[in-house]
């Protein structure tokens, strides 16, 4: 018997005959009301990301300004007229993506790597990530976000630029992903 099988057998023996207990799952789903775009922008900014809140008509122009002169990865499904996608992941300056959902309360962006969001490595290796979030993709809370997501898809949850702290609590950015996160919220 393997160690795993032995542990599982002990657990099964310990709970044998125990009564089934119903666990209440009355989670609060929607927490924030009002200006979700404003709250999301504020929380994303708290993470040291660069945030732009723009009318939808201005978004293509701002994207063009931000990517001009940069070797950007443009994933399949992201419409960026006039810009050639850079193919070499390790020499790219950055990536531009959309997202699956944004969470206002936490300032978190979730990618499910569908059309326009790129492969996971494309969003984690380059030093710069420009992400476009539409206002209709912003939800109040994590439970609302989870309800919109397909659990069978690969999910990347982004709360600001990649950062960690060393033993002396000095913040170090760019260790596990992009050092710079720039977010355009399209209203």
Automatic annotation (TrEMBL):
Domain LUD residue range list: 89-185
Transmembrane segment boundaries: none
Top-rank taxon: Bacteria
PANTHER family: LACTATE UTILIZATION PROTEIN C (PTHR43682)
Protein name (database record): LUD domain-containing protein
Organism of origin: Actinomadura luzonensis
Lineage: Bacteria, Bacillati, Actinomycetota, Actinomycetes, Streptosporangiales
């Amino acid at each position: 018997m393997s160690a795993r099988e032995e542990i599982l057998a002990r657990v099964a023996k310990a709970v044998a005959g125990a009564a089934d207990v119903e666990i209440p799952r009355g989670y609060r789903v929607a927490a924030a009301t009002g200006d979700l775009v404003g709250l999301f922008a504020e929380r994303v900014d708290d993470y040291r990301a660069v945030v732009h809140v723009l009318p939808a008509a201005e978004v293509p122009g701002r994207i063009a300004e931000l990517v001009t002169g940069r070797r950007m990865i443009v994933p399949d499904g992201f419409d960026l007229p006039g810009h050639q996608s850079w193919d070499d992941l390790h020499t790219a300056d950055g990536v531009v993506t959309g997202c699956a959902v944004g969470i206002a309360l936490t300032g978190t962006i979730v990618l499910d790597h569908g059309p326009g969001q790129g492969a996971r490595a494309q969003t984690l290796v380059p030093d710069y990530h420009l992400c476009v979030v539409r206002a209709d993709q912003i939800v109040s809370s994590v439970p609302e976000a989870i309800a919109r997501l397909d659990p069978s898809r690969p999910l990347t949850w982004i709360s600001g630029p990649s950062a960690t702290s060393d033993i002396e609590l000095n913040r170090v950015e760019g260790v596990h992903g992009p050092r710079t996160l720039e977010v355009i919220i399209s209203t």
